[in-house]
Structures are given as C-alpha cells and as structure tokens.
UniProtKB/TrEMBL annotation:
Name the record gives this protein: Bifunctional UDP-sugar hydrolase/5'-nucleotidase
All residue ranges annotated as the 5'-Nucleotidase C-terminal domain in the record: 386-532
Species lineage: Bacteria, Bacillati, Actinomycetota, Actinomycetes, Micrococcales
Organism: Curtobacterium citri
Top-level taxonomic group: Bacteria
Residue ranges constituting the Calcineurin-like phosphoesterase domain according to the UniProt record: 48-286
Gene3D superfamilies in the record: 3.60.21.10, 5'-Nucleotidase, C-terminal domain
Record region (Disordered): 377-397, 693-744
Pfam families the record matches: 5_nucleotid_C, Metallophos
Region forming the signal peptide: 1-35
Gene Ontology MF term list: hydrolase activity
Keywords tagged on the record: Hydrolase, Membrane, Signal, Transmembrane, Transmembrane helix
Transmembrane domains' residue ranges: 760-781
Ranges of biased composition (kind: Low complexity): 695-723
Amino acid sequence: MNAHSSPRRRRLAGASALVAAGVLTALTVPSAALAAEGDTTIDLYNVNDFHGRIAQSISKDSAGAPSPRDGDAAGAATLAGALEQLRGTDTSTSAFVSSGDNIGGSTFESFIQDDQPTIDVLNQMDLSVSAIGNHELDKGQDDLHDRVIGGQGDGVRAAQWDYVSANILDSATGEPAFDPYAIEEISGKRVAFIGATVDLVGQGLVAPDGIAGLEMGDITTEVNKVAERLTDGNAANDEADVLVLLVHDGAESSTPVSPTSNTDFSRAVYGVTPKVSAILSAHTHQTYSYAITPTGGTTPRPVIQTGSYGFNLGHVQLQVAADGTVTAPVAENLRLVDGTYAKDAAVQATVDTAVKEADRLGAVELGTIDRDLKRAVQSPDADGLQSENRGGESTLGNFVAEVQRSQTERQGSQIAFMNPGGLRADIGAGTVTYKEAAVVQPFANTLVVLDLTGDQIRQALEQQWQPSTASRPFLKLGASAGFSYTYDPEATAGARITSMTLDGEPVDADTTYKVTVNSFLATGGDNFAAFKGAAAKQDSGMVDLEAQVQYFRANPEVAVQEDQRAVGVRVTDAPEGGFQPGDDVRIDLSSLTFSNAADQGGTVSVSAGDQELATADVDNTIVDTTDEQGRATLTFTVPEGTVATPADARASALAVAPTATAPTVTTDEPLVVTLPNGQTITLAVTVPIETAAEPTDPTDPTNPTDPTDPGTPGAGDPTAPGTGLPGDGTGTGDVDGDGVADGVRPGTAGGDLAFTGADLVVPGIAAGVLLLAGALGLVLARRKRAEREATVLTD
C-alpha cells in the first residue's frame, strides 16, 4: 500500500437510518427459497457506470407515454427503492456493490457540484464496495484519495464505501496503490471483493499527469495474486470464504466472450482463478448475464454487466455448501425504469436539493459566442413560424461535433459526427450559461470513439438518407471541423457520397480513422448501422454536456464557423475521352447555405486554371426535410484555344515582333468551384485549358538559346554564319556593341526597310517579359494545383 491508502472502512448503517424514517418495506428475497438445506445464501446487488445519474430521465413516445431506451436513468430514488424492496429489513444476507464509474461523466446536477450529490445518495443506499473505474480518476489520484475517499475540504462528505483495485500499481514498489480488496461479512461468510481496473494508460482514459507514479498491471495476473493470498490458509493473510471480482472492464457486446479473444477482459473471464465465484463487470455499458467455466475449473461462474446509469440493477445469488463449494443459481438484470419499484422519499429529497442547486449554478456564465448557434429550420408556416428541420446542416450541429472531437483528442479522435435529434435547443449570440448549454443536449449521452474505415464512414453518410419506413426521410449529421464531403442528391442509394476529405487530404476507403459519436449513435441509433459495426469502441465516459462545458472553459470566446461541411454537386456526364473545346458543361450545386444563419447568399463561380468560366447567384429558398437549400447552376462552354501559333522561324523581324508571345501548352485543368464564403471545391472532372509554357533554363548546356553554349554553328554560336533574323537560331552575339550581330549581314524587312538593330531591342524586351510572365503564371498555377490537389471542399 502507498502512503495514500487508508484503513478499510465499514459501511454506515444507512439502511437502519431509513428504517427509522419509515421508508423501508419488508420483503424477503424470493430467490432464497432456491437454496438447498445446509446451504448459505448470499445475495449481491450491483450497478456499474452509474455516472452520477441521480435524477430520473426516461424517454417518452410520440404520445408522451414512458418509452424507456438504453441510456435512460431510473434515478437514484428508484434505485434506492428497489434495493429496499429486494433486500428487506435484514441486510445482513446481502450487499450492494459497484463495478466502478460511480462518479465522473455525470449529468449537470451532479457534475456541477463535483459529484457530491452522487456520493451522498450512494452513501444513503449503503453502497459497500466499489471497483475503481477510470472516471474515478478524472481529476487525478489525489482528488480520489483526498476528496472522494478522504472527504477533505469544507462541506465535503466522503464516500463511505471501500474503493478497490488490485492492478493499479505504485510504479516505485510494484504493489497496489489502492486497497486491492475489501471483505464484507454476509450471511456469516467472509466475502472478499477484489477490484480491478481497465488499462488507464494504454487506452489513454485519464490525463497522464493525474496518474503520475502509477502503472497498470495485468488484470488476470494481479487478481490471481490477491486470490491466492486470501485462500492460502494463512490467517495472517485475511482469509475469505468467497471471492468475487469487481472489474471495471467488460465485453464489447452482449455475446459471451470467446476464449480466443485477445482482450484483457476475455483473458480475465477465462484466466482468473476458479476460486473467484462471480465476475461483475463494467466500462463498456453493455447489458449481459451468462455463465462461463474458467480455465482449470469445473463450475460455471456468472459474468454480468448491468448496462449503465442505473437502467438495470444486477442481482447475483451465491450459495455456499457445507463443504465450501460456491455456486451461482441466479444471475440476472432487473429493469428499474418500468415503474416496478417505488421511489425512496429520503433519497428523492437529496436529489431535489441537488437539482435546485444546479438550477442556481446553471446561471453561471460559461463563455460567449459571436453569433447564434442554431438548428436547421423548415419553411415558415401560415403563422410565420419555422419548425426544426433535422434534414438540414446547421451551425449548431457542426459546432457540437467539433466540441466532441476536441474533447476526445486524448483517445485519438480525428472526426466527429452529431445526430440532429440530439440537439433540443438553440444558443443565442452573447453570453452562454451552464443552463443554456445543458438544454441543448439533455440526454446525457457519453462520447464514444470508434475505429471506422473510410468506407464505413462513407456508409454512415449514406445512411443519412433514411429507410422508407422512417418518420423522417433524411437526417443530417453535424460534422467536425476539417472534415468535408460532396454528394450527388440524385444518385441511387449507396452511391450518393462522391468524395470525402480530412484536413484537405482524401479519406481512404481502407484506412482506419478514430471517429467520435455519442453513445446513442454508437449503438446504431437513428438507423446509422455503420457506427454499430465499428471494429473497436471506446466509451470515453464523458457526457456530451460536460464536453461542452470543458470546451468553453478552454475557449471562452467562440467564433461561430459557417463553412459548409457538405455540398451537393452534380456535373454533366463527360463524353468519352473527356470534355473538349466547344462542349457544354452544367454544374448543379446545393447545400451552399444554412437555413438558419445570417449573411448568406451571394454568387458562386467555376474556374479552370486561372480562367473563370461562369458565375451564378445562389438561391437561398429552403427545401423542407432536406439539406438542399442554397442552390445554384453554373453553365459554360469549354473555351477554344486563343493563343496565337508562333510565326515561322524564318519570318522577318517586323512580322514576328508584334505577335511575339510565350509558347503555350494545353493542360487538363480541374474545375474549381468557389463558394460565396471563399470555400473551394475541386471537382473530379477536367477541361483542356491553354496556358503559357514554362521557359527553359538558360544555364542548361543543352539549351539551344544559351549564348554561352559552344554548340554547333547556327545554334547560338556568335561566330556562326546565319541570317541574324530573330528566331532563326543563328549568330546573334553583338561583341562590338554596334547593335548588330557581329559577323552577320543585317537583314531586311520585306526587302525594303533596313534592319537597324534598334528594332530588336523593344520587341526583345517584350518577348522576355512575356516569357517571364508565362513562367510565373505557370509556377503559380502549379503551386495552386499542388495546394488543392485531392482537395474536395476547403476554406
């Protein structure tokens, strides 16, 4: 143990206090009748990932009737009422335990008060033991030791339960940094609850400076060490009759884990010693209950997780035979959100006080925004009112997505998406309060980081077009900054997304990206099945509202971004061989503006190289239920070549000089659309455009125009005989400075006018300037092309 460890504390007689208050109802546990004669029955009730869900939050259907879904919270008062009814007045035969994350990632009424209300209600419910979850360390190990466990500080009431973890180790000693286990006497048996914690370091679940000096041991190895000490027959080692593992790690789905799965949790399920009679898991917010026989064992043991937030209450019944054999005839999840259990009045009073204080604190300023953050809207109705349009891109949706990406960067997040149904209020320009931020996202979803391939991201975007049976035909996902895509609104299902970029680079179909979504989307909510198919899911545990609060703390003055993350583009089909001079091209654009943002509209243009080909005004008319507002059509004819063909090299000086120009080349230039806000879209089609050719290097020894090249006669040699006419490649050196090429007979213009040399100077300078301008233009064009290469939609 390190210096922070404190003596194991016995739980308070919270149940007795509630009896005195007259709020307990006596009820014997029905499953006790299952015990054989001579068996000792032990009932364990457990939760995991409660995350401060002290207030009840239950979804409703369209008629307003309760319609619970995963992620709802029964509330602390209902949880307390269920425990009272199930445990009865004699609590000596049962215990209430947790597998961690009791605090952290909490809803507004709890996290705004440093989770003290959650600690208070769990104390009232007589929580006995809890594993240490990653969120217990959100504010660092000192906060857990000194405030949560120690209760230091004015008005701070400590947790009256034991926090345990066998595999959070002190780096200096290699020993557990916290109590590795706690023993409770239940039904006359010594029951040891061994704790274990998900890999905090390898998964980046907590701030590194908050766990400095700590390291993570392997769950299976460290739990087995403790189990061996507790059962080795040495009384000095705190012998136990029954061992139970409280592990803050879990399976990624409700399907029983496989022995071949290479995860810490699957190895623990099979590899933790058979002496451990039950595994109560957590962290992945899954709901499951099954039995697996461990390696080297003969008796199946239950593996259970209750989901999260107090939606369910886990119940595991253990029976200890006279010979010490432990079996588990009952392992179940009891639903708390369906009205079966009455609320406890004393706990409800604690919750009401916390909510009232949260309302007061909700008036506190978080920061400011320079303009409104709004959801998309439909066309005005007869009364001029505009309802929400979940099919439209919005500044609020994109803002929330960026907030969630930035707050999960620790988990490696690169992209984030936000479902429009999770946004329930706008935020007006100016000061933003806690309460205003809270009402935007009232569902208290946690943020989940998914491993998705580029193709899975494309599939998710395709699923914005909802099934025909859905109540809304289209749901527009908010997207984080740096991610953009184009789509064809008239394409067939599965082929609508035409390009995607991240920070200007194409999103590769086979590359895996870290994508943040809320826990609702992560489970395939709103028919976004692609998110559910992620190769890996990491629930950060951070609530969406908490992420927004932390974002404002880091960015107290927010400038709202109004760049489009998605634009509809449909281009005339290119003929075989590509577009050629004289071909007509049409580009239909949509989703150029937000339906509920200021300073919209203007004109769009399309260019190729440095040549603007067409412009058009933007139509801001709202198109209901979709994201098609902000439409424009650009039409143009691919231009013919306009640069004069160079004259014959033997033409006269007077004939050549007036038409002297840079040599030209025809290149296939991509079409670039420029939006009113300055964003550009580089299309995947090209048109032939003539541009000035890059001049050759005058120092190149193979350059036929290099005057210092001692090349062949007639190829720049000043002593070579020739006509001396510009462009003939013959001797042009004027060594004696008389303005006439030495060794050359001055030619005539049309046989009439004498060639004086002065006629060469201005045309020669002009030609040089033209060549330089052509070179510069080409460099700039190349530089621009390099900058926008593979770019689809950029600022």
